[in-house]
Amino acid sequence: MKARSTSLRVRLPVFVFVTEVVIVALYAIFVTYDDHADAKFQTNQTNPLDNAMYRDYPFFTDIQVMIFLGFGCLLAFFRLYGFGGLVFNFLTATFAIQWAILVQGYFQFNYDGKIHLGVINLINAEFACAVVLISFGAVLGKTSPLQLLVMALLEVPVFAVTEWAVLKYLKINDAGGSILIHLFACYFGLGVTFVLYRPQLNEGHAKENTSYQSDILSVMGTLFLWVFWPSFNSALTLKGDDQHRAILHTFIGLSASTLTAFALSAMLNKKGKLTMADVQNVTLAGGVTVGATVDMMISPAAAYALGMMGCMACMLGYKYLSPFLAQRLRIQDQCGIHNLHGLTGLISCAAGICAILMASEEVYGPSLYEIFSHRAPVEGDPKLLELQMLVPNLQPGLGRTAHEQALFQVAAIFSTIGVSALGGVLTGFVLKLSCLAPPSDDFCFDDELFFDVPLDYDSPTSNSITTEDSAA
Q: 339 CB contacts (<8 Å, ≥6 apart)?
């Protein structure tokens, strides 16, 4: 009975083919090429090397590696759920990017009512996809592929609307996505897992464990994410010195969090040994913690300190906060996204507010009004003309003070958390529908329910250790 109730033979093909027909129809109506991809804009005077592809494609490929290899391998840490972690990540990511091109493009319609597609649109869609995959971590092993596709279907529009509203009306600085990627994804995922709460899982699950091979694969995912994270943080920053700083700060923050993670892992382990879960997750904290300030003049020392602070918060969250959330607040955060993206995201946002308050022309020079574009003088202000003599491409701003910009950052943090949590809760109620083939408690963290598995898929049983044992 359970096998029939979760069969994908009809449900998955119906969902996929219907959405594909809808997407191809919408692409046919609304999606065209941008100027750098459209042949009619190319002449014998066009220099192919000036094409935006050469500027943006390296970032696109780096983020592709993070999404499909980094996230995929990282989520394959359960002993009997390696297929699910890798393949459901592949499936969900592919769908989310296709869908995000349309949904995000809706808010960027040109004068002709078309979405003008270029590599930069794909990068934006990848960021929306990253949001979905982070949220996926909260419900890893407890959802069917149909539930994940529906989650992506609903989360991408909520994210796109939130992103549009925050950037259009609050006009914040968020180069590394601390607010609009990490905090949104975290609290959306927590909202979903809150509704999908399974009381029996709080007592542990026989299949909620790892193996030697699955932990190695997961660390490979960590390494992919670690190596390419500078591209993730710098892809949408201003070209030139801003992007240069973003790369430097990200590497320094990651390096600091990695060293700190190894030290804390040994210190907090009762046997003084390293824990693989710490290596897989906590080492990445620095990449998130520097996100809000990644393009600012915060100094390399501050980036290092942020990496250490993020690592400490993330580590303590895994050790103490995650069990509390599961036992007391009905939030079963399977991959600890609240630690790696929520706590570190909040630290990053606080650092960003401090950096905004301290930013001055003495430190930044005239480029202050490029990085903090909303602090630039308004149209008609004599100071704007003076600045444009030094920075020819400088656009009029809103004339905000540092304190005003900081207040808008605070407003963005709370509004993003509120909208994402509410969106996650509502999505969770949709995902509870039985037609989406949710697995029973017995079949959580098990590939056998949704895959044709090889005969030896459960062979590492005798060598496996539980998640609780590994954290002891």
A: 281, 282, 313, 314, 315, 317, 318, 321, 322, 333
